[in-house]
């Protein structure tokens, strides 16, 4: 149809000619779409972080993690995953490899042996620590060179060095390390940061408080069955069998449940936003009806000079669709901005991830509202008999 | 070109039925300048609605170039109006929040012309009716006479076969009225466009080739102006 583009151009011009009213009409759509997009972005972001973290703990494909807990709940004194235990695990059918899994944010417990004060510290391996709260920290070169440097936290600095720690020597297991900075770690009290290579060289015999065993599985092996079997074997013969319990936690199942909860929240918010979009749609319909009534004379003039009923219908329909789509796009942008803002001001694990599907939903839903709620007024505009309205 | 044979028109008004047009027989030849005169309520507007393919609810036969369009669909009639008729109204009927350019373009939009071609044609036509550099103004920035010129430009832009002007001078002062009538006469002479002009004003009607007097829904008499 050749004059379709003409009619669409007329619709655009009409919208621009009534800016204020159209903006108010759009606000409903904008808020609804923005709410949906914000929640979807944050939900997706959280799911991504969660799955990355589980991937990290060994819940990824073809691998499983077996944990050890002492009966008392405190950290294990001796390594519950000795070389012997690894061999036991490897012999279980379906396991291709087994190794001790280290976690980046779990410390290694060690004894502090300074003359002034003795006690436990928790050593964290870091490749570099270039911006401690005080001091200059250490960089990757120090790590490569196995330099015996550490940073300590406020508690150690106060207890051991009377708040004057920089440049002093901290003894851990009778080995001296120069204190080069002060840095705190919320997860580990008495935290000491040490270059990773230095640690491996001098402190390699230490184990983490809550170590775990990472299993690599053969293709097609049933993860749960194999991991449970390993845990059972270790409970019988493992070196820590007397003091505690080896167990397999199905992280995948756990993650699925978390995702389910998040999906539920997303759907609930979407439903609420859906109601607001419905109301916004009624608003659009209302405004379009007013517009049709106000512009009866325009309709009459256009009809008298050759517009078909369908031309009038398309004109009003396009107006309402364009109105809604513009609202949808503004809502999309606001939603993305709000989600990024939430991402920026909240802790790391809340992230915003905008997916293509949320863009499609924003544009699709707003187009749909425009068509559904614009169609009825457009139809009534087209149905007016020229003889009745040309007065 | 136009042949009305025994046209009758009734309007239902609740239980009552009003008989507005009674046995109208009119012939209009191509290039003629016709004036239709008659008091209010005599049925002039009803008559021109039939002539302008707006009203199909009549009895009798309306032959345009020997063809009867009574059975045509609404869409077909829209197309016929677009190609054959140009309307000029007493109160101009310009779309107030559209520019002169957009107003005059309307028949071309529905004829399917592109925007560049439309603009060119609109400016030429505005020059024909004596308006210069007004195309980007809105109607209420113009005087009544100028607005009526815009309306006339809109009526003639698609080269219609005939123009129906419903009291085109009714809202204008006598000087402007004369200008507008002279414009109609010029268009009639130069383009041989058939004019059907409804008026109360004897002075206006005297410029026509022929005057048709209507009273109480009947053609009272026809008068050829010398």
TrEMBL record, chain B:
The alphabetical list of record keywords is: ATP-binding, Nucleotide-binding, Transport
Q: What is its main location?
A: membrane
| Name of the protein described by the UniProt record | Putative hemin import ATP-binding protein HrtA
From which organism does this entry originate? Staphylococcus cohnii
Highest rank taxon of the organism: Bacteria
Q: Which residues form the ABC transporter domain?
A: 2-224
The molecular function GO annotations come to: ATP binding; ATP hydrolysis activity; transmembrane transporter activity
Q: Which residues form the signal peptide?
A: none
- What is the role of this chain? Part of the ABC transporter complex hrt involved in hemin import. Responsible for energy coupling to the transport system.
Q: How does it assemble?
A: The complex is composed of two ATP-binding proteins (HrtA), two transmembrane proteins (HrtB) and a solute-binding protein.
Note the topology in the membrane: Peripheral membrane protein
Which locations, inside or outside the cell, does it occupy? Answer: Cell membrane
UniProt lists the family membership as follows: Belongs to the ABC transporter superfamily. HrtA family.
> Which InterPro entries does this chain map to?
AAA+_ATPase (IPR003593), ABC_transporter-like_ATP-bd (IPR003439), ABC_transporter-like_CS (IPR017871), MacB-like_ATP-bd (IPR017911), P-loop_NTPase (IPR027417)
Q: Kindly list the residue ranges recorded as spanning the membrane.
A: none
Q: Name one GO cellular component term.
A: membrane protein complex
């Amino acid at each position: 149809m050749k004059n379709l583009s003409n009619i669409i151009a007329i619709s655009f011009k009409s919208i621009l000619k009534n800016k204020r009213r159209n903006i108010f009409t759009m606000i409903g759509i904008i808020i609804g779409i923005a709410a949906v997009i914000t929640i979807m972005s944050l939900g997706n972001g959280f799911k991504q972080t969660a799955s990355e973290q589980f991937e990290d703990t060994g819940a990824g494909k073809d691998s499983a993690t077996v944990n050890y807990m002492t009966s008392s709940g405190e950290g294990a004194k001796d390594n519950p995953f000795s070389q012997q235990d690894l061999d036991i695990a490897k012999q279980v059918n379906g396991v291709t490899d087994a190794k001790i899994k280290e976690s980046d944010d779990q410390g290694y417990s060690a004894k502090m042996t300074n003359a002034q004060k003795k006690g436990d510290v928790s050593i964290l391996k870091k490749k570099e620590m270039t911006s401690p709260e005080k001091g200059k920290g250490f960089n990757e070169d120090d790590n490569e060179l196995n330099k015996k440097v550490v940073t300590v936290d406020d508690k150690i600095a106060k207890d051991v060095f009377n708040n004057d720690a920089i440049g002093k020597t901290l003894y851990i297991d009778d080995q001296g390390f120069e204190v080069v900075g002060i840095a705190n770690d919320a997860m580990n009290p008495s935290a000491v940061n040490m270059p990773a290579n230095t640690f491996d060289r001098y402190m390699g015999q230490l184990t983490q408080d809550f170590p775990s065993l990472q299993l690599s599985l053969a293709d097609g092996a049933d993860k749960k069955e194999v991991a449970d079997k390993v845990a059972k074997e270790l409970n019988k013969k493992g070196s820590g069998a007397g003091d505690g319990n080896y167990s397999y936690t199905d992280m995948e199942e756990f993650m699925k449940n978390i995702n389910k909860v998040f999906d539920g929240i997303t759907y609930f918010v979407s439903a609420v936003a859906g109601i607001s979009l419905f109301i916004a749609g009624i608003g659009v319909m209302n405004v379009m009806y007013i517009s049709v009534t106000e512009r009866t004379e325009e309709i009459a003039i256009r009809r008298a000079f050759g517009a078909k009923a369908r031309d009038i219908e398309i004109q009003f329909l396009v107006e309402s669709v364009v109105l809604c789509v513009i609202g949808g796009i503004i809502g999309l942008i606001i939603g993305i901005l709000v989600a990024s803002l939430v991402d920026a001001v909240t802790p790391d694990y809340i992230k915003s991830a905008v997916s293509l599907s949320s863009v499609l939903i924003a544009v699709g839903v707003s187009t749909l509202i425009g068509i559904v709620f614009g169609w009825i007024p457009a139809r009534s505009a087209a149905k007016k008999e020229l003889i009745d309205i040309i007065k | 070109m136009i042949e009305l044979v025994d046209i009758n028109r009734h309007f239902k008004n609740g239980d009552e039925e009003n008989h507005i047009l009674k046995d109208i027989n009119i012939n209009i030849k191509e290039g003629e300048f016709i004036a239709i005169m008659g008091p209010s309520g005599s049925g002039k507007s009803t008559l021109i609605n039939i002539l302008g393919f707006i009203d199909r609810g009549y009895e009798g036969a309306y032959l345009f170039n020997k063809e009867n369009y009574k059975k045509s669909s609404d869409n077909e009639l829209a197309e016929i109006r677009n190609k054959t008729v140009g309307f000029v109204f007493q109160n101009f009927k310009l779309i107030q929040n559209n520019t002169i350019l957009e107003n005059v373009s309307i028949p071309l939009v529905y004829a399917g012309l592109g925007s560049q071609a439309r603009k060119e044609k609109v400016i030429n036509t505005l020059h024909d009716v004596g308006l210069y550099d007004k195309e980007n103004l809105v109607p209420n920035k113009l005087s009544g006479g100028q607005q009526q010129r815009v309306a006339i430009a809109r009526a003639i832009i698609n080269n219609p076969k005939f123009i129906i002007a419903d009291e085109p001078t009714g809202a204008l002062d006598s000087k402007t009225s004369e200008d507008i009538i002279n414009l109609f006469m010029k268009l009639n002479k130069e383009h041989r466009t058939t004019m059907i002009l409804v008026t109360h004003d004897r002075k206006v009607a005297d410029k026509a080739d022929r005057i048709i007097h209507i009273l109480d829904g009947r053609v009272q008499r026809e008068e050829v102006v010398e």
